[in-house]
C-alpha cells in the first residue's frame, strides 16, 4: 500500500528548501527526470510502506546524505517500518533531562504543512507533526517524522506533543486556541490569514467567520504566553509555483496581494531560524523585492515595527 502526496505539491517543491535553485539541481535531476519526466504520465509521488523496503523518500534522503552508511553520521534514523511504537523510549524520558531540539508542525496533513515538514527533514531537523491520519503520515514520511494524533485540549496529549519541542510552526489556525499550556516552547511561528479574513465581506465573510475567530484567538494566546513569536500575515494563498516572483513586505499589502503556498512555507522555515526577543509581526505577499539574506530582512522588519 502506498500513500500519494497531493498532486499540487510538485516534485520540485518536495526537495526545495531554499530559493537557491542550484542547491539540489544535480540530485533532483538524477532522481526525477526518469520516468516522471514523461509528459504523458501523471506526476505522482508515492512512498512505499512495505516492511524492510526503503520508501521513495528514504531513497531521496539516502542520495542527498551520501548513502545509507552515512545516515548515523548525519543523525538520520535507521530505516524500519512500524506504527510509531519506536517513540516509546522518547516518551519515557524525563522532562528535566530532555533535549529540546524538535520542531512541531501543526496541521501536518495540509499542503503547506507537508511542504514545511519535508523542508525540515532535508535540513535534518527533528520533526514532530500533528496529523489527522497517523498511518498515512507514517507511510509518507517513515521514521523521519514523529507523527502524532489527538486533541490538543487533552492535557496529557498536549504534554506528549510538546515533549522535546523547541519551536512550533502553525500553518493553519486552531491549534493554539486549544492548547492549555506551551511550557518549554522557545519560539512560535504562525502563518496567519487574518488580514484576508478581516477584509472579506458578504458570503465570504460568513464562510470564513469561524477561521477568523480561531486566528484571532491563536494570536491573542501567543501574545499572552510570553513566548517569543513570529506572525507571518499573508494575502490570499494560491497554488502558484513559488520561487519565481519576489516579495513585498509593505504595510497593507495583504489586502489585495497574494502569496503562493510554497513561498508561504518557505517564509515560515526561514522565520524559524530568527527568534525575536519578544515578537515579530509582518505582512508578506509576492512582489518585486528579491531577498538575498532572510536574517537581515527579518531584522529590518523588527526595526520597522
TrEMBL record:
SUPFAM superfamilies: NAD(P)-binding Rossmann-fold domains. Coiled coil: none annotated. InterPro entries: NAD(P)-bd_dom, NAD(P)-bd_dom_sf. GO terms for cellular component: chloroplast. Residues 111-273 form the NAD(P)-binding domain. Pfam families: NAD_binding_10. This is NAD(P)-binding domain-containing protein. It comes from Ambrosia artemisiifolia.
